[in-house]
Structures are given as C-alpha cells and as structure tokens.
Write a structure and sequence with these properties.
The complex is a heterodimer of chains A (269) and B (160). Chain A is α/β, with parallel strands linked by helices and 269 residues long. Chain A has six helices and five strands. The radius of gyration of chain A is 27 Å and the shape is elongated. With 160 residues, chain B is an alpha+beta fold. Chain B folds into two domains: 88 residues, Sandwich (ATP Synthase, domain 1); 42 residues. In chain B, 36% of the residues lie in helices and 37% in strands. In chain B, strands 2-1-9-8-5 form a five-stranded mixed beta sheet, with no helix packed on it. A five-stranded antiparallel beta sheet of chain B has the order 4-3-6-7-10. Classes of the chains: A alpha/beta (269), B alpha+beta (160). Chain A: It is found in: Mitochondrion inner membrane.
Chain lengths: 269, 160
Amino acid sequence: ATLREIETRLKSIKNIEKITNTMKVVASTRMGRAQRAMASSRAFREGDSDFFATAETSTPETAEKTLIIAVSSDKGLCGSIHSQIAKATRAKLQETPNADVVTIGDKIKAQMLRTHSSNVVLSFNGVGKEAPTFWEASLIADEIRKLGDYDKIEVMYNKFVSGVAFEPSVFPSFSPISIEESPKLSEFELEEDQAIPTSLSQISLTNAILNAMAEGYASEISARRNAMDNASKNAGEMINKYSILYNRTRQAVITNELVDIITGASSLD
Amino acid sequence: MFRQSLRSIARTRTGTIGVRTYAEAVNPDVLKVSLVAPHQAIFTNKEVSQVNLPASSGEMGVLANHVPTVEELAPGVVEVIESSGTASKYFVSGGFASILPGSKLSISTVEAHPLDAFSSENIKSLLAEAQKNASSADETVAAEAAIEIEVLEALQAAVH
C-alpha cells in the first residue's frame, strides 16, 4: 500500500477507537443506575414470588395456549445479548411450535421475524433506552392482556449474573386458574369476594416484565461496556501495527529517494 | 471397607442437616416487613412489632404470627411501628400485602412515600383539577380522574 493509503486507514481507525471508547465510558456511567434499577425491581418481585413459592404455584405441563414474551432492546453493539435471547426463544418454540410470541425491542423482533414470522403476534419498540419504569411495564402488560387468555406465559430475558456474564433465563407468569389450583393455597386465608387470583396474576405479569426489562437492561449495558472495551483494545492494537507500518513505509520511501539522489549525483562524477 | 463406612457417615450427616428448615432458622415471634416500590425498597426484612395496612376490605393491623393471607391494598397509609415504639407512616397508592408463614409480611406497591413529604396545597389543587375532569365526556379521562380522586381524597384525609 502507498503511504497515503496507510495514512487514511490509520486516521479512520483512530476515529473508530475514539467512538468505541466514548461508548464504553457512557456505558460505564450508566452501569450504576442500571444495577440499582435491577436491584429494586428484584426486591419488588420477591414480594409475589415468595407467595407463589409458598403456595407452590406451577405452570400447567400441558398448555393449550402458550405465550412467550422475549425481552431485549432496540440498540445493537452489545455483543451476543440479542442473539442469545433469540436462540433461547427458538429452543422454546421447538418444544411448543404453536406458541405465540411477543417481542419487546426491535433487535429481537428482526431475529424472530426471520425464522418464526407466523408466531409473532405483537411487538414493542422504543423501550430500553433508559432504565425501565413500572409505568412502561404496565402499559406493555395491558397490551399483552388484550391478546386474550393464555394458559401459560413465559418471559424470556437476559439474567444479569455479574459484570461480565449474563444468561438467558425464564420467568413464569401464572394464570388465575393455575394460582387457584396451587397445591398449598389453603395455607393462605383468602377472601373469596376480592378476586385475588385475578389481580395477582395481572400484577405478576407486569412484575415479571418489569424485572425482565431491568435485568435485560443491566445485562445489555454491561455487555456493551465489555464489547466496547474489547473494540477499543483491538483498535489500539491495529493503531500500533499501522503506526509501525506507516513509519517503515515512510523510511522506505525516504531511503528510495536518497538512493535515487545519490546514484544520480555519483553518475555525474 | 473404609470407604463404605465413610459413605454411611456422610449419609447420616446429611440426614440430620436436612431436618433443619428455613422456618426454624428465623424467629417467628418477630414480624419481618418488606415495603417495596418498583424503583426503591424502603424496608427489606425489617423487624418490627406491628404494621397497619389500608386493605381494600378495611383497615387491618398485622402482628407477628398472623395467619397467612394476601390482601389487596387501597390507597392509604401504611403505618410501621418498630419495637422501640416509634411509628413511621408511608402513603401508598394501592398494591398487595402478602403475609407468609413465619411472620413475614411483604408489601408491594407502585408508589410509596413518607407522609410528611406531601404538600397539602398541591393535593388540594390536583384534587380540584381531577374533580373537574371527572365530569368529562371522554370516558378514559373520566375514569382516570375517578381514580385520581380516590387516591387524592385518601391522601388528603391522611395528611390532615
């Protein structure tokens, strides 16, 4: 390559490094807030998951209508976050080919439409730019409830394990019928007229979506930070390589010119 | 021979450990309360003596060893009385309180704030606006205003 070509290449890599580095810094500053949102939504969910654990509520083994809610987001450049969820959702769809799918986030929507376009019944976008709020989760849950009753609802999300790890996981959401059929429900004294199972099932769906979005957000931010950190490192390596190549080529050009001048001068003697 | 005896020891050990359950590990005579909103956990497993709840079926006081139940909460004041006798009041916008075996009470609500954080003038002006909207022709606006009035009236009663 000529000297000019190497120079432009080097400049563009330097610019890319600046961008990835900035994205990394932005992700790092958001990390704290994302983790706080996740911790509080986890604590919030514990309220009803404790109840379900005590009542031993479980989803029916054979469900006629299954709904899978796949939670991810709109933005890329964060490693394998979206494809992991898509993979997990596809694995679920292998077991229950007739299940309906609701996608939250453009990336997961695009991936699901490619392979299972007939299963996708509803999709949301515009979420996941900031830490999720209860308001967003309840709007989504309201829309999902309009789809009708499902025997079994599963929320797929990226569970935040640590700053460097996440894993696709499932939150079950229970229908009023499965709450009523819980084997240990008799431990609780519920008042008949209040329709507790129905309202509990609604709040647990909202809760599951909120918690899934908060975990997914935290996983995405940390994955983006790691991806951008790696990208900056790789860019740094390339900058070093190209700087050496640039200097060598420059030296070679100068040496060539010197050789030309000296041979020219010596031929005059 | 040696390995076999080791295995039998291991088996008896796990047997005795298995008897110890979670419910025995906690003291059931102290009420443990968690008050959580989606954005903030105000209490997590705090040991208190009594909690008063605004259940939709009426006000209720919860002490330790309460029978397990789930109550839907109306907008109102949750009063947490600590063992030292100091009481703290929080206004909640409705939600659920589940009382679990082992004297554990978890209250999940959408919004919860200390009672002295509210300004009575603001409540008054918001209430006036909501009452105006309640007679709106648009059904959604009217329904939203009806909910607002329910919450604001409970709040007004609590602040005074």
